[in-house]
Every structure is written in structure tokens, then in C-alpha cells.
Design a protein that fits this description.
- It contains five helices and no strands.
- The chain is mainly alpha-helical.
């Protein structure tokens, strides 16, 4: 509406054709940037969902590995269950925070890779630990992606705020010029 009104009345309130064209281009760029900023926000939200799903997968994999270790170590002699419980911190609860269960997953994988050397007679099947590694890789990838998306969204939003401030100045200029030419009660102000 504003662009149509400005094209219609711009010259009568003291704007040159070049100024009208410049304002029109600014508005079009601003609208395009607004759309891009919203799109970046949507992308960021999408990655938050991806991180949440990856977090759930990692938690499930941590629980599965701990269950496997508890079950298999219970079948061994006295030393193995104690070693497994201490090495893999099985007496601790799985943390609720992502950083906590990521650290726990890393500890489990480190212990699993050291197991053949530290407890050569104790065999643990690889699949639960392979799934744990995949889930850990997935969450790391998701966290890197969300960091990138967050940076892109912040940059777009900062640019959007700068353009909005410039747009506010342009709108005040248009309004005050129109009021100076027509007065405060003119119905044409609604078209600007």
C-alpha cells in the first residue's frame, strides 16, 4: 500500500522520481531480507528438532550399552563386575543434560576400546557400541550444524534490524513531508 501511495503522491510531497525509486527498492530489499531472516529462523528450529532426535538416540544407546555391560559382567567372576562398574561408571545415573550424557557416551566408548587390553577374557559384542558411536557422531554433526545455523540466523537478524532502523527513518521522512504538504488530517496519509 505504501509503495502505491508513494508512487501516486511522491512528487506532490516533494520526492523526486529517483527518491521514489530508491525507497521502492529499499522496501523490496527489506521485504526480501525479512523473508530470509524468517527462513533462517525456521532452519534453526528445524536443526533444534534434529538435535533433540539425535539426543534421544544417544540416550537410548547409552542405556543399551550400560545394560549390556551390566548383564554380561554379572555372569563373570568377582573382579570383572567390579571393574566394569568402576570403569564404565555404572553406579552413576545417566545425566539429564546433553553435555553430561555426551561425556558419558565418550567414556563408555573409551572404556570399550580399552577393554581387550584391560580385561582380555571379557568379551562384549560390538553392535551396541557401534550404535553408540553412530549416535554420538550424529549428535556432534547436529550440534555443528545448529551452531552454523545459529550464526547465520544472528547475522540475518542483525542485518534485518539495521535495515528496519533505516526504514523507520525513511517512513518518518515520508510522513513528515506529507504532513508538511497536506496537514495532519488529510485522508491521503492513509495511503502512505
Amino acid at each position: 500500500i505504501m509503495i502505491n501511495g508513494l508512487e501516486k503522491y511522491g512528487n506532490s510531497i516533494g520526492f523526486s522520481d529517483d527518491e521514489v525509486a530508491e525507497i521502492k527498492a529499499f522496501v523490496e530489499n527489506y521485504m526480501k531480507l525479512s523473508y530470509q531472516a524468517k527462513e533462517e529462523g525456521a532452519d534453526e528450529a528445524e536443526f533444534f528438532v534434529y538435535v533433540r532426535l539425535a539426543s534421544n538416540d544417544l540416550q537410548k544407546a547409552v542405556y543399551a550399552c550400560r545394560k549390556t555391560l551390566r548383564g554380561l559382567s554379572a555372569l563373570e567372576g568377582d573382579d570383572v563386575p567390579v571393574y566394569i562398574a568402576e570403569r564404565f561408571e555404572l553406579d552413576k545415573k545417566v545425566p539429564k543434560r546433553r553435555s553430561g550424557y555426551v561425556a558419558m557416551a565418550e567414556n563408555i566408548l573409551e572404556g570399550y576400546s580399552a577393554l581387550p587390553v584391560e580385561q582380555p577374557g571379557f568379551f562384549v559384542p560390538a553392535p551396541p557400541f557401534e550404535r553408540l558411536q553412530e549416535a554420538l557422531d550424529k549428535i556432534r554433526t547436529a550440534q555443528e550444524a545448529i551452531s552454523r545455523e545459529r550464526a547465520e540466523a544472528r547475522a540475518k537478524n542483525a542485518e534485518h534490524r539495521r535495515m528496519r532502523k533505516k526504514g523507520e527513518r525513511i517512513l518518518r521522512n515520508i510522513y513528515f513531508r506529507a504532513v508538511a504538504h497536506w496537514g495532519e488530517d488529510d485522508s491521503r496519509l492513509l495511503e502512505l
